[in-house]
Structure formats: C-alpha cells, structure tokens
C-alpha cells in the first residue's frame, strides 16, 4: 500500500473507449468548450500566484484525464503559462513532467497513441483514483481536474439498500428523488471532496496550484431544475420504460435491477465547493468564477447530440450492469424523450465553475 | 520535443497483447526464470553500491517493461532491496515511485489492470523508447532493463537496400547471413547502445544504478552457433518455404516482401557490452556476470513451447508486415522445423548476461 491511502475502494468509471462510435474521444466537444473557456483564467493565476521553488523538475498532473484530446489542450495551456512564468522571472531551466492520471481501466493506450508529437514536456501516466493518494508528498506543482469531480467515488450505500429510508426505488439518479436520497448523495459528495482535498494537500508543494473545473448548479437552484440532472433523470425514466413496456423483448431486465443501479454523479454548487475548501483548510481560494452561458451543456446541440453525449459518459457504467444489448434500445428512447422534453430542458439551469486554489505554506 | 532527444525514430516492437492466446503475458516463462536468477545479484549491488542522496522521493524505472507479470517481479525485487538499504543506513522515510516504461503502443491497459494490489510504491508509466530521452536530467535512482536491449531501434538501412552489399536477400535475420549483413547489425547495435547509455547517463543521479539483463553469446562464439539466433534463422527459413511452396495457397506474399522484412534483434557478447560502457565513460561496471545454464532458452522446453515463445515475441512485427493470416501457417511449420532441428539446437550456445552499472560523479 502506498503511504497515506484512504481505505475505501473507488468506483471505476471508464469513459467509452477509443473504438466505440460513441467513444468519449469523439463525443467530448462540450467538455472542450469548457477547457477553452478556462485557458485565460488559468494563465492569469499561474502568472500572478504560482510560487516557483528551487529544483530542476516541475510536475503537472491532469487528474481524471480520460483519453484525450481535451487533456492535451488543458495541459498545453498550463505548460505554456508555466513557461511564460519561468521566462518572466528568469528562473533557471526546468524540466516539465506531465503526469496523466486516471483509473487503471481508462483507455491509456488510446491516450498514449495520440500524445502530441510537438510536446515540450516528459509524458507519464499515473494510475489511481483522485479520491486517493496518487503521488508522493510535496511532489506536484500544478494539479488540473477538469470535469472530473462530479463523478462520486461510489453510489452511497443506503441508496441501494431496500431497508433504508434512502432506498432509491424506481430511479437511477438522485436529482428527482425524495430528500433522503438527495441527502445521501450530498453526504457522499462531502466525503469525496474531503478525500480529494486532503490527498492533494499532501501531494502539492507549498505555493503550488490546484485548478478545478466542474459542472455545477447556481446556489439555491434545486437539483431537479439543473439541466445536467434533467438529462440524467430522463435517462432513468427510459430504464423504467424499458422494464415495464418491453419486458418481453429484453427478457432479463427486472425492475429490481434498475432499483439497484444508480449513477454516481452529483452536481455541486459554488457554496458547497467553498465550504469544502474551507473545511479542509490547506488551500487559499485564489479565484472562483462562474463560466459564461457558452458552456451550457445543451447550447447548440440537437436532442440527438445531447443523447450521444450522455451515452459517451454513461455507456461503460450501464454496460457493466446490464450488458451491451440494452444500449441501442435505451438511447433510441432517450433521444426521443429528450426531443419531447426540449423546451423544459432549455428552461433549466446549468453553470460551470472554475476554481483556482493555492497550497498554503505548512 | 523533450530536451536532449536524439533524432531518429525508433521502431516500435510491441509484444503480443493481453488478449491473444500467444500473448507475451502468458508466454514469458523463460524471461521470468531470468528475472529470478538476477534477484540476488541486484540485491547485493543495491546494498553495497547504491549511494542514497538527500530528498524524499526515490525513482525506479523498468525500461521496456512490456505488459507483466515479469516487470512486477523485477520491480518488487528492486523495491525490497531498496527498502532494506534504507533501513540499514537509517535514512529518513522516502517515497518510492516506479515508472514503467515502454513504447506508446505497448499494451499499458493490460499492465495497469494487473498492477499488484499490495505494492508499496506509487505506480506511473513513462512513454517512449529507451534509445531516447524519457526522463528529466538526474531524476532516476535505479534503471532496470531486463531482456530489452537485444531489440534494436531499427533494422539497419542497408540490409533492406537492394543496391547495398549488405542486402539481406532471402533472409529475415542476420545471424546466418553474409559478413556485410552481420557487420551492419553490429554497427546498429553499437549506435543503439551509445544512445541508451548517453540518455541514461543524463537521467540517472550520480551514485544511481543501472541493471541490464540481456540474452548474449559467449565471446568468440559465431552468431550462427547461438541458440537464440538458430531459432530465428529457422523462422526465416519458414518464410522462404511458405513463399516458394505455398504461393498458390497464400497468394499475395512475394519473395521481395520477405527480402524487405528483417527482425531487428542482435545478440551481443560480454566483450561488446563492456566496450560500449567504456566508450560511453559515464558509468563504472560494478558487476558483470554470466547467468547459469538454467536460463538457457530451450532448457526443458518442447519444440512446441519454443515455437509459441518465439511467436509471442515476433507476432506483432510479422503481423505489421504480412497481416494475420500468415501466422498460424508460419508457426505450424516453425514448430515442425524446430522438432527436426532439436539436436542441433541443443548443441548451440546461449547465455544471459547481467550487468550492474553505477553512475559516476559528474
């Protein structure tokens, strides 16, 4: 065991791999818009806030990197800013190492095969959940985590426990469920953020930076009015529809299987993120910014686009539980239901949140 | 481009992947015997020769790691020795990082999926050819390269050039060819070792160690009398056989395709390795040892075993040039020819060479 690991086992959440027509790689344009929107913000923080220490090696990690190309764009933005920072303070030459981090079951072969040939850094991969320790103490200078922290480490136990008040019967997601379910998801999010920040506090050098970009809901907006959640809720209703209407066709999917399937995603709010950072206490908040409407998840997308996008993110999880044969039928229905609900969706809320943290001196 | 890279492009040489019945993973028992034989040797060198510097991070790389499980055994042996060394000198706690290195097209997903759960180190992957720079200056404490350095970075140009004296007509390997071919392979080996040692000299900290284990031939033994080479030569004769006898069956394999296919492997000798290290000048030789007969590549193997073993190593290369459909036919013939030649093979020579180097102070 690596030093300082926490004890729970993280849920693996692989994006659809490189060979699928619904691969995350070719269906992550929305995340790319978000990456672009954060470029200037990250640049300003690096120039103004990064404290460069002695030593010839500078380590950057992109946590939850998935399989590109977004990770390469994020990393390029950060590396360029860091190089300008070095020039501006006439520091001696540093070697930049970039550690691409994700779960062991991420499609690293696809990632490596598409590494940019003109990169100015040494490329490594670091295996493990970002809710756990991945790096030695004080070894990392900049952490980036873009669109990763809405994935929980696991579905909260009680949500899948028939005897619990928080049993999420007939649902696969929390946002439109009873308050006990929402509360369990919220508690799990708090625990996970505590692990993330505690582990990063150990790994990041004093003066080093952590960038977080995450889908979010405006403070006080109920979970059920958030576009991301409405998209997932519709997916959940498709499961129930399939079970009830098409049981003869599919045969082996029982209602109970849907009851014990839940998507481990939670949409946070600015206030929840700030509270988590303050509870942890190791980081100062250098910037917290709500990204513009251009990053809305359904901006300019057809129902079909939106459905394919959701498929790219959830396919692995669904396949693990129900096998592959359900996928086409499910997402056909999902697309159709999205079309019906499109006006509702547009009236929903969605923001992306950019946060820049700096590791305080010990 | 990373700093200090050399300019040529290395030939990718992937082992058969995790899903193949001929996968390297399930057919690398011979290499495992070699790994076991080196355990005590590495342990002694670590305890007696490793110079531990200040700093809390200790980095080990296994170069040309392939996809396990041998790499995990090697790494475990080294990590255990390093931990004992730390205890013996009462050094303060160090975090051990292990960087598994191989080409981008190595099956890293299989590697990561089988990482030992009880490991005491942080596991990373570092992408790139070991004939090139992979790590920042003075960042690595121990390099291990087990059964990797007999793979050349490329087939020498002239060997595939119809107008050259070294044109390797009718052959796919160098050992039983004319002296001009052998000379080109030997020159390429010298160049490659120069690159390997030059890059490692930049990356390894002063007092750090490099372990090399490599199949070899006794000094003065001709290339044609070495078992590894005899196995490859028989494979080459099978290609020719297929072209000549079975052209109707296979259709599209022409003699010229065989003429322009060559296996980029060279079997070195103790004296050649020593010369390369002395020419480089950055390392002292702490140990150079010929491993016992137990590591002979055909010891205890049937012809079928030996053929499957050769297939696991060469399948990727052959497939790249000729496609998959030739493989079964080729190795059926190979097994049969190995059986016929078994008495000859046993009379051949084969050693494994273990070398421990220490980076001199600058």
From TrEMBL, chains A, B:
It holds the Pfam family Methyltransf_7. Keywords: Magnesium, Metal-binding, Methyltransferase, Transferase. The keyword Repeat does not apply. GO terms for biological process: methylation. It comes from the Eukaryota. InterPro entries: MeTrfase_7, MeTrfase_capping, SAM-dependent_MTases_sf. GO terms for molecular function: methyltransferase activity. The keyword Transport does not apply. Belongs to the methyltransferase superfamily. Type-7 methyltransferase family. This is Probable S-adenosylmethionine-dependent methyltransferase At5g38100. It comes from Solanum pennellii. The lineage of its organism: Eukaryota, Viridiplantae, Streptophyta, Embryophyta, Tracheophyta.
